[in-house]
Every structure is written in structure tokens, then in C-alpha cells.
Design a protein that fits this description.
Largest sheet: 2 strands, antiparallel
Number of strands: 8
Helix content: 40-55%
Distance between the termini: 58 Å
Mean pLDDT: 87
Strand content: 5-15%
Strand order of the largest sheet: 1-2
Structural class: mainly alpha
Radius of gyration: 21 Å
Shape: globular
Length: 299
């Protein structure tokens, strides 16, 4: 897009969003969800367009026709990002790119930087993912007899999920022991994970959920680049468990997690949990492909 003798590169899909873009979009989503103003899909697209231009050095100029035209053109192109559903406005996220790499919590001496998973789940371990799926399902299908109970349950599940995925960076000594850039997922208790999540901003919590939810979907439908080769785990999920509208693909993944944990294919349960997730998925895929070849030979 052209503006004042210079070109501005604007995102056309999720993989082109910057960290600043995504964080501003999450803040807009939170504003929409927590204010009484009746937002329309056009409103949020215009607000998003303003934020994207601002992060690219284009300051707001309400009396400038060229600026208004830029906002209008960009807003009209954001149909892939904001959609109107039966439940209201929906911010759509469909990328495994990690756009919230770190989260800072606390103040003063208590200030702490937490590190999240790498893009495309490259450093997720099987155990970490298994627990994340449990929190994901708890958030999407909350228990409780009243709406207030279910809301509290959802908040706790979301905080537990965020506290699980975002941990402090491992010290050099810890890295030598566990070979992970973050301290192991089971280094503290569930209560401490929830406490850590409660210190995060609400928009950060939902952003963490959105990333994991789409990662689950991508794991069952898309391709991953592993050691320079495209790998699809989709054959493992050819007959997935039907999921309710609005739910992630966590249900079918949860069943695989439970089955693999009981198989001891990577050693003890602790060994399995410490194994990289994508390594586990590759092993499952190889076994599946071997089985399919054997079946074809018998035909």
C-alpha cells in the first residue's frame, strides 16, 4: 500500500502478522468483550486497521483524506481476521507462528520474564502437550452448575494453561541437565502455574489459548517442516472424534496422548513425557505407515 511516497507492507494472512499486530488485535478483542458498546464487525476492522498502520509509523490523521482512505482500504481487506458469528464478533487466528514469545509478570523485584513455546510447537514435550490438552478441554467444556461457576472454572483452566506453557528460561546448569530452553513443565505445582497465569493480562491469556487451539488443529490437518522435509500427521486422524462447534481439535489428540502414555514405547511414563512432541508424532506416523504397508501386502 502506498502512502506519502513510501510503500507500507500490510498483512494479508495470519502468517504475515507481526507480534505488535497480534497484541494490538488481542487488546481490541478484550475491549470488545468487556465494554457495553455495541461493536459491529466494521467497527473492529477499522480499529484494527488503525492499529496496524500505527505500528508501521503511520500516525492518525483524522482530517487527512489519504489517511482515511488507507484505513478504509485496509479495513475492507480484513475479512479473514474478524468475522461475525451467531455468538457475536470473532477474532480468527489460524497460524502456528508464535506471536507472544515472552510474557512479563510482577513488578519491581518480583518482575519476571516468562518464555513461551517456539513457533510450530518445536520445543513442546509430550508431557507438556498432554497437560495442555487437559487444560484446553477444561476451558472449552467447563464444569459447574451455575454460569458463575463455569466462568470461574474457565478462568482457572486458562490460567493453568498459560502458566504451564510460559515458564522461566532455564539457567545454563539447568539446560545442561534437561536440554530445554525453558525449565521443565513439571518443575512446579499446578497451584503455582495457576498463580503465574493469574498475573498475566486477560488478552495475553486468550492469545495463548488461540495459539494452542490452532496448533492442535494444524497437528491433525496441516504439514510441518521437520529436518527440511514436509511431514503430515493427518493420516493418524482420518477418523477423528466429532467435536462440538467452537471446540478445538483437542479431543482426538487427547485420546492419542492417553494411548501413547500407556504404551511405554519411549520407555517409562516419565521418559515419554520428556520426549519432544514432534518426535512422538513422527514415531506414531512411521508405525502407522508400516502397518498400512503390511495390510496392503496381505490384500
Amino acid at each position: 500500500m502506498f502512502n506519502k511516497n513510501r510503500y507500507i507492507t500490510l498483512p494479508e494472512d495470519w502468517d504475515e502478522l507481526t507480534e505488535a499486530d497480534w497484541q494490538e488485535l488481542l487488546k481490541i478483542r478484550h475491549m470488545v468483550a468487556t465494554t457495553d458498546h455495541q461493536w459491529t464487525v466494521e467497527d473492529v476492522r477499522i480499529e484494527s486497521a488503525r492499529a496496524m498502520l500505527r505500528s508501521r509509523g503511520v500516525r492518525q490523521q483524522l482530517n487527512n483524506p489519504q489517511w482515511l482512505l488507507l484505513v478504509s482500504q485496509l479495513a475492507e481487506s480484513l475479512t479473514w481476521l474478524w468475522q461475525q458469528t451467531d455468538d457475536g464478533l470473532s477474532l480468527v487466528y489460524r497460524s502456528t507462528q508464535q506471536l507472544i514469545p515472552v510474557v512479563t509478570i510482577g513488578n519491581g523485584k518480583e518482575r519476571q520474564t516468562l518464555v513461551g513455546p517456539l513457533s510450530h510447537g518445536e520445543d513442546l514435550t509430550f508431557g507438556e502437550f498432554r497437560q495442555a490438552i487437559q487444560h484446553l478441554k477444561a476451558y472449552e467444556s467447563p464444569a459447574g452448575q451455575t454460569e458463575a461457576d463455569r466462568a470461574a472454572y474457565r478462568t482457572t483452566a486458562l490460567c493453568a494453561l498459560a502458566g504451564l506453557l510460559y515458564r522461566r528460561e532455564a539457567t545454563p546448569e539447568e539446560y545442561r541437565q534437561c536440554h530445554q530452553r525453558r525449565v521443565p513443565y513439571d518443575w512446579d505445582t499446578l497451584e503455582e502455574k495457576i498463580r503465574r497465569g493469574r498475573q498475566m493480562k486477560p488478552w495475553q491469556l486468550w492469545g495463548i489459548y488461540a495459539w494452542l487451539a490452532y496448533f492442535c488443529e494444524a497437528l491433525t490437518t496441516s504439514t510441518f517442516m521437520i529436518d527440511g522435509e514436509e511431514v503430515s500427521f493427518a493420516p493418524l486422524f482420518e477418523h477423528p472424534t466429532p467435536k462440538k462447534e467452537g471446540e478445538s481439535a483437542g479431543g482426538s489428540l487427547q485420546q492419542i496422548c492417553l494411548t501413547l502414555a500407556e504404551s511405554h514405547v519411549f520407555g517409562t511414563a516419565r521418559d515419554v513425557d520428556r520426549t519432544p512432541l514432534l518426535t512422538v508424532m513422527q514415531k506414531l506416523l512411521m508405525d502407522y505407515q508400516t502397518l498400512m504397508k503390511l495390510k496392503k501386502k496381505k490384500i
